[in-house]
Amino acid sequence: MNKETALKIFRQSKALLDGHFLLTSGLHSPQYFQCAKVLQYPQYAELLCREIANHFRHDNIDLVISPAIGGIVAGQEVARLLDCRAIFAERQNNTMTLRRGFELLEGENVLAVEDVVTTGGSLSEIIELASAQNTEIKGAGFLVDRSGGKATFGCPRFAVFEMQVTTYQPEKCPLCDQKIPLIKPGSRSLNAMQGK
Ligand code: ZN
User: Fold this and answer.
1) Helix extents (H) in 114-167
2) What distance in angstroms lies between residue 193's CA and the mean position of ligand 1's atoms?
3) From the CA of 165, how far away is ligand 1's center (Å)?
4) Which of the two residues, 195 and 72, has the higher pLDDT score?
5) Residue 114's domain is classified under what CATH number?
6) pLDDT digits (tens, 9 = 90+) for 77-101
7) Could you give the C-alpha distances from 182 to 11, 29, 34, 36, 147, in angstroms and in order?
8) Dist. CA 29 → ligand 1 center (Å)
9) Ligand 1 center–CA 88 separation, angstroms
10) Helix 3-12 / helix 42-55 crossing angle, nearest 10 deg
11) Looking at the predicted structure, is the pLDDT value of residue 196 above 70?
């Protein structure tokens, strides 16, 4: 999928918004991205996840594992396309844990799938969890790389889309200078932009 197609899908689904946003880090940004917004459309989820599935199609994947909550939808869709199992790990007492009777079997070929990678922390944790069960980690696939290519996992990695993150210190923000209203994601004004 080329960058323009991916961007069009993200904008159409309002997963990617342009404006002036206050990030949780306190920095300001001209863009705000919420991956769940694109995955609410199964046809877009399929288009994006097919890129991951195709990339790892010849690795005989037995199992896709994802970190909850963000990775669940993408993991399930990639597994559907690869015709294999999908499980997810959940954070419990600050540690990624398999619950609900989910199992990793020794020797299984495992693909770790996530929606958005920023530092790659959760994905690294589930790869460690899977490695500890003597599985074969075949790769890490994710929809959006916001790490600038820096997040690595000790296995082949594949990102559908690389998204640059532009941020400004509040006191040096050109959007503030232009008096563009600052929007805090989750606020009513953002919901209005998203057509809620
Ligand atoms: Zn600003």
Assistant:
1) 121-131
2) 18
3) 14
4) 72
5) 3.40.50.2020
6) 999 999 999 999 999 999 999 999 9
7) 20, 9, 17, 22, 25
8) 7
9) 37
10) 150
11) no
